[in-house]
Amino acid sequence: MAPPIEHFLPEELEARAQFNAKGRYRKGGVDLEKCKLMEMLQYDCWVERRVSQPFVKCRPLVRMFRKCANGLTVETTSWEDLESRW
Predict the structure, then answer these.
(1) Within-domain flag for 5
(2) Which of 23, 25, 28, 57 stands the most exposed, by the fewest C-beta atoms within 10 Å?
(3) Radius of gyration of the CA atoms of the chain, in A
(4) Which residues of the chain have pLDDT under 70?
(5) pLDDT value at position 46?
(6) Domain of 32?
(7) What is the distance between the alpha carbons of residues 70 and 20, in angstroms, rounded to a whole number?
(8) Strand, coil or helix: 40
(9) pTM value?
């Protein structure tokens, strides 16, 4: 069973990225703005049933990531959207 999902604000992402899954501080720290920005396109799909024939309908979802030199990869979709609003 997967662990429960912890919720936090996008503003807290960089501070939380400083720690690994075991709660230990990452050596040297992490500056997400210096990490390479990457993008991935996913699709959210569902089946719509019509009288004649069911069909699949999809919508694109863009996900943003920061890939750091130390091997850390963090999804920053909400964080990037926050940055673009300023």
Answers:
(1) no
(2) 23
(3) 18
(4) 1-2, 82-86
(5) 94
(6) 10-85
(7) 12
(8) strand
(9) 0.69
